[in-house]
Amino acid sequence: MPPKPRAWQRMxxxxxxxxxxxxxxxxxxxxxxxxxxxxxxxxxxTIGDYAYSVAEHSLLVEQIYTLIQPKAPVKxxxxxxxxxxxxxxxxxMISPVKSAVGPDYGVLDDRLTxxxxxxxxxxxILPVSVKR
Length: 132
Prior knowledge:
The protein is mainly alpha-helical. It has one domain (25-131): Hypothetical protein af1432 (Orthogonal Bundle). The chain has helices spanning 29-37, 54-68, 74-81, 87-90, 95-101, 103-119, 128-131, and strands at residues 8-10, 16-18. A two-stranded antiparallel ribbon has the order 1-2. A hairpin with a 5-residue loop joins strand 1 and strand 2. Helix 2 packs antiparallel against helix 3. The longest helix is centred in the C-terminal third of the chain and has 17 residues, at 103-119. The radius of gyration is 15 Å and the shape is globular.
Protein backbone atom coordinates (compact mmCIF):
# COMPACT_ATOMS: atom_id res chain seq x y z
CA MET A 1 0.00 0.00 0.00
CA PRO A 2 1.47 3.40 -0.97
CA PRO A 3 2.04 5.92 1.81
CA LYS A 4 -0.61 8.56 2.42
CA PRO A 5 0.19 11.83 0.68
CA ARG A 6 1.23 14.78 2.84
CA ALA A 7 -1.86 16.92 2.90
CA TRP A 8 -1.48 19.24 5.86
CA GLN A 9 -0.61 22.88 6.19
CA ARG A 10 0.86 24.73 9.14
CA MET A 11 -1.40 27.67 9.91
CA UNK A 12 -0.37 31.05 11.36
CA UNK A 13 -1.91 30.00 14.68
CA UNK A 14 0.60 27.16 14.80
CA UNK A 15 -2.10 24.56 14.20
CA UNK A 16 -1.45 21.82 11.69
CA UNK A 17 -4.52 21.41 9.48
CA UNK A 18 -4.89 18.06 7.71
CA UNK A 19 -6.79 18.89 4.52
CA UNK A 20 -7.87 15.28 3.96
CA UNK A 21 -9.04 14.72 7.53
CA UNK A 22 -9.68 18.12 9.13
CA UNK A 23 -10.84 18.23 12.73
CA UNK A 24 -12.79 21.05 14.38
CA UNK A 25 -10.01 21.43 16.96
CA UNK A 26 -7.57 22.47 14.22
CA UNK A 27 -9.75 25.37 13.05
CA UNK A 28 -9.04 28.87 14.39
CA UNK A 29 -11.07 31.95 13.51
CA UNK A 30 -7.89 34.03 13.20
CA UNK A 31 -6.56 31.66 10.53
CA UNK A 32 -9.83 31.87 8.62
CA UNK A 33 -9.98 35.68 8.80
CA UNK A 34 -6.35 36.11 7.76
CA UNK A 35 -6.58 33.59 4.94
CA UNK A 36 -9.81 34.95 3.46
CA UNK A 37 -8.49 38.52 3.59
CA UNK A 38 -5.71 37.46 1.22
CA UNK A 39 -7.74 35.27 -1.16
CA UNK A 40 -9.03 37.14 -4.21
CA UNK A 41 -12.43 36.38 -5.69
CA UNK A 42 -12.45 35.34 -9.36
CA UNK A 43 -8.66 34.88 -9.32
CA UNK A 44 -8.23 38.63 -8.94
CA UNK A 45 -9.93 39.38 -12.26
CA THR A 46 -11.75 42.45 -10.99
CA ILE A 47 -11.54 46.11 -11.91
CA GLY A 48 -9.68 48.43 -9.56
CA ASP A 49 -6.36 48.74 -7.84
CA TYR A 50 -7.11 46.07 -5.24
CA ALA A 51 -8.55 42.60 -5.46
CA TYR A 52 -12.00 41.89 -4.05
CA SER A 53 -11.26 39.46 -1.24
CA VAL A 54 -13.28 36.49 -0.09
CA ALA A 55 -13.37 38.14 3.36
CA GLU A 56 -15.12 41.21 1.90
CA HIS A 57 -17.50 38.96 -0.02
CA SER A 58 -18.29 36.95 3.12
CA LEU A 59 -19.13 40.09 5.11
CA LEU A 60 -21.39 41.29 2.30
CA VAL A 61 -23.20 37.95 2.10
CA GLU A 62 -23.87 38.03 5.85
CA GLN A 63 -25.27 41.57 5.56
CA ILE A 64 -27.53 40.60 2.65
CA TYR A 65 -28.71 37.48 4.47
CA THR A 66 -29.58 39.60 7.52
CA LEU A 67 -31.58 42.02 5.34
CA ILE A 68 -33.46 39.15 3.70
CA GLN A 69 -33.94 37.18 6.94
CA PRO A 70 -33.97 39.80 9.74
CA LYS A 71 -35.44 37.35 12.27
CA ALA A 72 -33.02 34.54 11.49
CA PRO A 73 -31.14 33.14 14.48
CA VAL A 74 -27.58 34.35 14.99
CA LYS A 75 -26.27 30.88 14.14
CA UNK A 76 -27.61 31.17 10.59
CA UNK A 77 -26.03 34.60 10.21
CA UNK A 78 -22.77 32.95 11.27
CA UNK A 79 -23.37 30.25 8.66
CA UNK A 80 -23.78 32.96 6.02
CA UNK A 81 -20.53 34.58 7.14
CA UNK A 82 -18.69 31.25 6.98
CA UNK A 83 -20.18 30.10 3.66
CA UNK A 84 -16.80 30.30 1.88
CA UNK A 85 -14.61 29.64 4.92
CA UNK A 86 -12.83 26.58 3.44
CA UNK A 87 -11.31 28.93 0.90
CA UNK A 88 -8.92 30.15 3.60
CA UNK A 89 -6.82 27.10 2.76
CA UNK A 90 -8.02 25.90 -0.66
CA UNK A 91 -8.51 29.28 -2.33
CA UNK A 92 -11.45 30.56 -4.36
CA MET A 93 -11.42 27.99 -7.12
CA ILE A 94 -13.33 29.22 -10.16
CA SER A 95 -16.10 26.93 -11.45
CA PRO A 96 -14.30 25.83 -14.66
CA VAL A 97 -11.38 24.57 -12.57
CA LYS A 98 -13.73 22.83 -10.13
CA SER A 99 -15.28 21.03 -13.10
CA ALA A 100 -11.87 20.04 -14.44
CA VAL A 101 -10.72 18.74 -11.05
CA GLY A 102 -13.88 16.68 -10.66
CA PRO A 103 -15.84 15.49 -7.65
CA ASP A 104 -12.80 15.16 -5.39
CA TYR A 105 -12.74 18.94 -5.01
CA GLY A 106 -16.28 18.85 -3.62
CA VAL A 107 -15.33 16.10 -1.17
CA LEU A 108 -12.40 18.18 0.12
CA ASP A 109 -14.58 21.29 0.40
CA ASP A 110 -17.34 19.36 2.21
CA ARG A 111 -14.89 17.93 4.77
CA LEU A 112 -13.44 21.35 5.53
CA THR A 113 -16.90 22.90 5.72
CA UNK A 114 -18.10 20.25 8.17
CA UNK A 115 -15.07 20.74 10.44
CA UNK A 116 -15.48 24.52 10.35
CA UNK A 117 -19.20 24.34 11.09
CA UNK A 118 -18.74 21.97 14.01
CA UNK A 119 -15.93 24.15 15.40
CA UNK A 120 -18.31 27.11 15.59
CA UNK A 121 -21.36 25.23 16.86
CA UNK A 122 -23.16 24.82 13.56
CA UNK A 123 -24.46 21.57 12.08
CA UNK A 124 -21.96 19.89 9.75
CA ILE A 125 -24.50 20.10 6.94
CA LEU A 126 -26.73 23.17 6.83
CA PRO A 127 -30.48 22.96 6.20
CA VAL A 128 -31.36 23.70 2.57
CA SER A 129 -33.45 26.69 3.70
CA VAL A 130 -30.31 28.32 5.13
CA LYS A 131 -27.86 27.26 2.43
CA ARG A 132 -29.79 28.81 -0.43
